[in-house]
Design goal:
Blueprint lengths: L1 H24 L11 H8 L10 H12 L11 E2 L8 H13 L10 H17 L7 E5 L2 H19 L4 H4 L8 E5 L4 H9 L6 E3 L9 H8 L8 E6 L11 H10 L3 E5 L24 E5 L11 E5 L2 H8 L29 H34 L6 E2 L7 E5 L3 H14 L3 E7 L2 E7 L7 H15 L2
Parallel strand pairs: 1-11, 3-4, 3-5, 5-6, 6-7
Antiparallel strand pairs: 2-8, 7-8, 9-10, 10-12, 11-12
Helix pairs in contact: 1-3, 4-12, 5-12, 6-8, 6-11, 9-10, 12-14, 13-14
Bound molecules: pyridoxal-5'-phosphate.
Pyridoxal-5'-phosphate binds next to helix 6.
Length: about 450
């Protein structure tokens, strides 16, 4: 036993030492990786060693080898995609989750982590202004959160026309008409593909990428009365940060009996701030929502959240009890009844820790801080030679063009090579863009200043 314990001690001491070194340097190091995956396969790979190695030596090899291939996503100057950093309480809670090694599927088997997830779920509903009593499932990310909400919706709209998709499947099922905005996230299409629902019907969007509610109303008229419908809306456009017109769109969709799903991977968090909640007004009227804790809430990868207003449809879709329907639907249910897996990591625990460490006002300040930094960056970009901000910066996203696609790509490559900041290249409205996503809780004024300086270096001749 004592030999076992000292093995844990040594391995964890080494891991803790490397973790602390990383966290100390992450805010000032070259933001992008300096080695490729190909380089590192040569470091980590080769023939499978015949003999073993002490755990602490394994961790040293791993940490030292990985270092050049790590993205400093915890840096306040990292603005790639919408990845977010890691709050201290969330990171430390995640260590405990690994240490405890609980299978968080069943309440009676692992009550502590089930209770933490239940508490976190209740807090989330309150923070995001969603109906109390909705089911909350902790999944791997926004992709699976979209899948989960849409799977519950698929069950629900088919059940409504007397078709039990669990038993009868999709062969010969009534057709489900699925509508999406022109600028929905690709993972909505992917989820529909996983669900056997095929390609959706695309509704036009305005210049900021918001689905047009009047176009949705017109499109819905083509569906014969009584046929199943799912409508997908978006809170937070990846390029512009824009939000769909929820009140109008949900009203027209519900008038046709549709299930409405909202993909709010990073945008749903606007609801947690009194000064930003106007952006998500009306979202509470939807039937399901997807969001990410590993983005705006700054919980370590991975953690997405699927919320469904109709527990019966959620648990009928994911519950594993054959006799499920005689269970008490008003109870909290098992975590595994709200996610597409039976055995699972306790992903809600770091969420609980993040929320407990921030409190309601702390979450609001976090989101407001991201938006204020995005606005400062957008303002500063206006003084950068040849740069033009293409979107209305009301949230965390800034999309920049440098005149032509080739010039924008050149500046993108230069800024990434420079290493003082990281912004990603993308394509929006038929042109190449440089995109800033502010999603790290630690970004401060100095990070903004250094990033704008780096941008000026990148456009210099
Ligand atoms: C990031 C994102 C997703 C996908 O989330 P993952 O966590 O990467 O799976 C879906 N929708 C939107 C709007 C996103 O920003």
């Amino acid at each position: 036993m004592s030999a076992t314990h000292s093995q844990y001690d040594r391995a964890l001491d080494v891991a803790s030492k490397f973790s602390r070194e990383w966290l100390t340097s992450v805010g000032s190091r070259h933001v992008g990786p300096t080695a490729t995956a190909g380089d590192l396969v040569r470091v980590f790979g080769g023939p499978l060693p015949e003999g073993g190695l002490d755990p602490d030596e394994v961790i040293t090899l791993l940490a030292e080898g990985a270092e050049p291939g790590l993205m400093a996503s915890g840096s306040g100057r990292f603005y790639g995609w919408v990845m977010g950093g890691t709050l201290p309480a969330a990171l430390a809670a995640d260590w405990l989750v690994s240490t405890w090694d609980q299978n968080a599927g069943l309440r009676y088997a692992t009550p502590a982590v089930a209770a933490l997830e239940e508490a976190a779920g209740t807090w989330l509903l309150e923070l995001l202004g969603l109906p109390a009593g909705a089911d909350v499932g902790f999944v791997t990310g926004g992709t699976m959160a979209n899948f989960t909400g849409l799977a519950a919706g698929r069950f629900h709209v088919l059940d409504h026309v007397g078709w039990d998709v669990r038993v009868a499947g999709l062969n010969g099922a009534p057709k489900i008409h699925v509508f999406v905005g022109e600028e929905r996230h690709d993972t909505v299409d992917l989820s529909l593909q996983y669900l056997g629902l095929g390609r959706p019907i695309v509704v036009a969007a305005d210049e900021q990428g918001r689905l047009k509610a009047n176009e949705l109303a017109t499109a819905l008229e083509s569906v014969p009365e009584g046929e199943p419908i799912i409508v997908c809306l978006q809170a937070g456009n990846l390029h512009s940060g824009a939000f769909d017109p929820f009140e109008e769109a949900i009203t027209v969709a519900h008038a046709r009996g549709a299930w409405v799903h909202v993909d709010g991977a990073f945008g749903l968090w606007a609801a947690a701030s009194p000064s930003l909640s106007y952006l998500t007004r009306g979202t509470a009227g939807a039937d399901s929502w997807a969001t990410d804790a590993h983005k705006t809430l700054n919980v370590p990868y991975d953690c997405g959240i699927a919320i469904v207003a109709h527990p019966r449809s959620m648990r009928s879709t994911f519950g594993v009890h054959a006799s499920y329907l005689i269970l008490d639907e008003s109870g909290s249910g098992d975590p595994s009844e709200k996610v597409p897996e039976l055995s699972r990591r306790a992903r809600g625990v770091p969420v609980w820790a993040a929320l407990r460490s921030l409190g309601r006002s702390g979450v609001a300040e976090l989101v407001e801080g991201l938006v204020s930094n995005a606005k400062s960056l957008a303002l500063g970009v206006k003084d950068v030679e040849g740069a033009e901000v293409l979107n209305d910066v009301d949230y965390t996203q800034v999309c920049i063009s440098f005149g032509s696609d080739s010039r924008t790509r050149e500046v993108t490559q230069r800024i990434i090579a420079d290493g003082a900041t990281w912004m990603s290249g993308s394509h929006w409205k038929d042109q190449d863009v440089l995109r800033i996503s502010v999603s790290n809780w630690s970004t401060d004024d100095e990070d903004v200043r250094l990033s704008l300086e780096a941008l000026s270096r990148a456009v210099a001749p």
